[in-house]
């Protein structure tokens, strides 16, 4: 996985204002605020001359409509079904799952789910975990990226190499040793099991973020740093007042990844947070799935889906810009 | 240019410090090292060094050591050489797990490789409201995986009134046992995994498609190429780099599949969905096997080596393709 990421990163030479390189998969990502992407002019397989022909026109519009229907069914369909089933009496959902109109609504499913499954607490845990993981990742990625890209001490190459090499190690290998490290962290003396730190800190050790941010800093115009130097700004001032504000686009991408992956994570929080009152939604839901009524469970599933879907709808651009890298992050 | 910048940047805290007056920096005493910016360098690197040190580098080293040890956390760890590897390799379940994981990866390729490509090519021709199309395609990726699995588990209900069986009943098919049958369980898992992941791949392809220079299509049009000829001779060759990237990504991802088999079937029925990662989990944390951390890490290390070979092969391949 790591090699893959580094090769794709190597192509992300497009700093702000620079021309886009041909390798588009990731080039759009660091280019942050690039509003005029060629996407508007694309669609060149069917040329404009072709489009003027009535037959081609009819075919393309049929294809577009068909595509929209397929995407609506596959993308939105299951969520709409979940929304419907969440407020449908359990017996209705069991007997006629695809009925458009249930016999009466059961809004009580939502409140029952909230109280009997104690979703409020799990939701707060999820938010805490996501927020802490976000903070750790941003802190490590920005300070590390700044030190390795801008300050560049003599040993920067070694540290960069050591960070980069962790990309070569799939997360599977770390599962057991990392769990044992959490049980007995070196130099701490007590276990981190059932503490949010057990999720937050390993999340911070994300080489992908560090390299992404470092790449972005590498492409910032050096003249600005030099000008800040001349004006007497030290390394801390330069970091806070110049580098951080300029890196908003890349921080947006990293933030969305951090929050969503923390929200999604299942195996790791399940291992290190055995205490049910500490567990996030993703860990609680499967445990409760067997013990609550179906309508209640589906209402619970709906409640846990709303936040990430809303976040996606609000900052869609960030998601889609980062999606090319999202694949590389998994695994 | 970079080196001058760095020395001026690091030296800026105190312009009179001796370390920054000489462009090639010499070794200096601790006091001037700190004044020359050495201290602030370390301050900025500290979070990276600590977090990576404790939660990445140390566990990686520990994995290598543990795979050669017998550890149960109660008694002191014993060096047992390659005994863990021998134990894992002679476990009949390992071969079941490898076979199942390979089957999952193969099915995921059959389902999940062409579909996003077709969707992306069609979407790239949409001229109005393209954002809506991308958003719809990406929506399943945003649904938390645990929610998706639990929802699909209900969709897969084997009774005739299950969601999928109802829909298929409309056209006279089924009912199918889905998760409850050895032969249909794995394809069911892959179907859900494909639904959950396809959107991300679509977006990758879309980005690549929009970067194909329009002149290539114009030239093909001038030569009288049909739409399908353009797809075959322009679009696909232009996408080959990205296609390879997603292929390797998918192989690496599917060889570590855990969530679907764990939550859908727990590895059953009769181990037909037991994957390698599920076996690692069972060795380390399972109810019956459990606590065999040595075997778990030994298997992890072996899987990592295979994945590293895969990545290396991919790397060579893409380089050759890129330069040709």
How are the secondary structure elements laid out?
The complex is a heterodimer of chains A (331) and B (324).
Chain A: H1 2-10, H2 24-27, H3 48-51, H4 54-86, H5 90-95, H6 108-116, H7 119-151, H8 156-165, H9 171-183, H10 197-204, H11 207-218, H12 222-230, H13 235-246, H14 248-264, H15 267-272, H16 281-289, H17 294-314, H18 316-329
Helix pairs in contact in A: 1-11, 4-17, 6-17, 7-10, 7-11, 7-13, 7-14, 14-18, 16-17
Chain B: H1 2-11, H2 30-35, H3 38-66, E1 69-70, E2 78-79, H4 83-89, H5 92-112, H6 114-124, H7 130-142, H8 145-155, H9 163-170, H10 182-210, H11 214-222, H12 227-254, H13 259-265, H14 276-285, H15 293-323
Antiparallel strand pairs in B: 1-2
Helix pairs in contact in B: 4-15, 5-10, 5-12, 5-14, 6-10, 7-10, 8-13, 10-12, 10-13, 12-15, 14-15
CATH class of the domain at 119-291 in chain A: Mainly Alpha
- Biggest interface: A-B, 130 and 130 residues
CATH superfamily of the domain at 119-291 in chain A: MetI-like
Helix/strand class of chain A: mainly alpha
What low-confidence regions of chain B span 5 or more consecutive residues with pLDDT below 50?
1-23
Q: Kindly, what is the distance between the CA atoms of the first and last residues of chain A, rounded to a whole number of angstroms?
A: 8 Å
How many domains comprise the coordinates of chain B?
A: 2
Count of individual helical segments of chain B = 15
Q: Report the count of strand segments of chain B.
A: 2
- Proportion of beta-strand residues of chain A: under 5%
Written as H for each helix and E for each strand, in order along the chain, the element string of chain B is: HHHEEHHHHHHHHHHHH
Stated plainly, the CATH topology of the domain at 119-291 in chain A is called MetI-like fold
Number of helices of chain A: 18
How far apart are the termini of chain B? 33 Å
What overall form of chain A do the CA principal axes indicate? flat
């Amino acid at each position: 996985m790591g090699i893959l990421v580094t090769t794709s990163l190597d192509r992300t030479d497009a700093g702000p204002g620079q021309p886009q390189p041909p390798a588009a998969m990731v080039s759009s990502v660091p280019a942050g605020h690039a509003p005029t992407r060629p996407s508007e002019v694309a669609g060149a397989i069917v040329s404009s001359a072709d489009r003027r022909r009535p037959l081609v026109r009819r075919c393309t519009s049929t294809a577009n409509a068909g595509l929209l229907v397929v995407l609506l069914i596959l993308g939105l369909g299951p969520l709409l079904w979940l929304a419907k089933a969440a407020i449908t009496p359990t017996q209705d959902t069991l007997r006629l799952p695809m009925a458009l109109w249930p016999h009466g609504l059961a809004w009580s499913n939502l409140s029952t789910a909230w109280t009997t499954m104690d979703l409020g607490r799990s939701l707060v845990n999820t938010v805490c975990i996501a927020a802490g993981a976000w903070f750790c990742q941003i802190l490590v990625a920005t300070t590390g990226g700044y030190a390795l890209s801008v300050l560049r001490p003599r040993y920067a190459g070694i540290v960069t190499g050591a960070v980069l090499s962790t990309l070569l190690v799939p997360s599977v290998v770390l599962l057991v040793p990392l769990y044992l490290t959490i049980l007995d962290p070196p130099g701490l003396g007590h276990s981190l099991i059932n503490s949010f730190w057990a999720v937050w800190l390993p999340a911070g050790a994300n080489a992908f973020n560090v390299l992404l941010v470092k790449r972005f800093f590498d492409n910032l115009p050096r003249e600005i740093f030099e000008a800040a130097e001349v004006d007497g700004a030290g390394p801390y001032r330069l970091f806070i007042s110049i580098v951080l504000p300029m890196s908003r686009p890349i921080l947006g991408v990293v933030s969305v990844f951090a929050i969503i992956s923390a929200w999604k994570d299942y195996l790791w929080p399940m291992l290190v947070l055995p205490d049910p009152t500490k567990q996030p939604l993703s860990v609680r839901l499967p445990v409760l799935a067997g013990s609550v009524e179906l309508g209640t469970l589906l209402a619970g599933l709906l409640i846990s889906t709303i936040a990430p879907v809303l976040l996606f709808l609000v900052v869609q651009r960030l998601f889609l810009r980062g999606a090319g890298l999202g694949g590389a992050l998994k695994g | 240019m970079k080196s001058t910048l760095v020395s001026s940047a690091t030296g800026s805290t105190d312009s009179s410090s001796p370390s920054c007056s000489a462009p090639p920096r010499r070794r200096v005493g601790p006091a001037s090292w700190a004044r020359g910016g050495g201290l602030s360098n370390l301050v900025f690197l500290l979070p990276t060094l600590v977090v990576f040190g404790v939660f990445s580098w140390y566990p990686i080293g520990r994995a290598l050591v543990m795979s050669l040890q017998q550890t149960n956390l109660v008694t002191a760890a014993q060096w047992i050489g390659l005994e863990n590897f021998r134990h894992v390799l002679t476990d009949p379940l390992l071969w079941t797990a490898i076979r199942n994981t390979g089957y999952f990866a193969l099915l995921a390729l059959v389902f999940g490789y062409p579909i996003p490509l077709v969707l992306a090519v069609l979407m790239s021709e949409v001229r109005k409201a393209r954002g809506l199309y991308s958003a719809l395609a990406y929506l399943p990726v945003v649904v938390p995986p645990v929610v998706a699995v639990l929802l699909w588990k209900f969709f897969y209900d084997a009774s005739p009134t299950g969601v999928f069986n109802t829909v298929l009943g409309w056209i006279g098919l089924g009912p199918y046992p889905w998760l409850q049958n050895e032969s249909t369980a794995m394809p069911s898992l892959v179907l859900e995994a494909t639904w959950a992941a396809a959107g991300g791949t679509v977006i990758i392809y879309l980005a690549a498609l929009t970067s194909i220079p329009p002149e290539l299509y114009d030239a093909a049009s001038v030569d009288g190429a049909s739409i399908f000829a353009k797809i075959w001779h322009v679009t696909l060759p232009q996408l080959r780099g990205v296609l390879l990237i997603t292929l390797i990504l998918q192989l690496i991802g599917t060889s570590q599949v855990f969530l679907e088999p764990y939550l859908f079937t727990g590895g059953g029925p009769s181990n037909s969905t037991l994957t390698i990662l599920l076996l690692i989990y069972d060795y380390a944390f399972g109810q019956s096997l459990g606590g065999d951390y040595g075997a778990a890490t030994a298997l992890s290390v072996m899987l990592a080596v295979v994945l590293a070979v895969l990545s290396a092969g991919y790397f060579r391949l893409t380089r050759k393709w890129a330069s040709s």
